[in-house]
Specification:
The protein is an alpha+beta fold and 143 residues long. It is 28% helix and 18% strand. It has 3 helices and 5 strands. The chain is globular and about 55 Å long.
Length: 143
């Protein structure tokens, strides 16, 4: 079954309804599991137990619990892989076409993203002048 077809059939949050047999490790506030639609082999996920949308909604103890499982998952993946990418996904859906409305972290072994943009075009580096200009724009817009 394709991922989009699976999601259309789900009328509830897949992370809020994980079965005990799907849990690799857990603590009081978070769960480590295997991705049902993995990007690569051994792709893991860390999710807070409570349905949360963004990192800002986590209480400090919940964030520490998530971090602990991210660290543990990376440590386990390093037994087999040299490189692990951590990808944070907020649960805000409509604006960017995300598929799951529950905050989650992907632990993806051997993901090759360094030389390419998200659209798989080769990445370019800013000139020093462009770089400084962009920093100024970000400061004005976000800080």
């Amino acid at each position: 079954m394709l991922y989009q077809e699976y999601l259309k059939k789900k009328h509830f949050c897949p992370f809020c309804n994980l079965l005990k047999k799907e849990i690799l490790k857990q603590n009081k506030y978070a769960i480590l599991t295997f991705a049902k639609a993995p990007y690569t082999s051994d792709h893991l996920l860390v999710v807070p137990k409570k349905h949360k949308i963004s990192i800002g909604s986590l209480k400090p103890r919940e964030k520490r619990a998530v971090d602990d499982l991210i660290h543990y998952g990376i440590k386990m993946l390093h037994k087999k892989y040299k490189n692990v990418t951590v990808l944070y996904r907020e649960g805000i859906l409509k604006q960017v076409g995300k598929s799951v409305s529950h905050l989650h972290y992907h632990l993806i072994p051997n993901l090759l993203i360094g030389a390419y943009n998200i659209d798989f075009t080769k990445r370019k580096i800013y000139s020093e002048e462009e770089y400084v200009k962009k920093i100024g724009e970000i400061k004005k817009e976000l800080f």
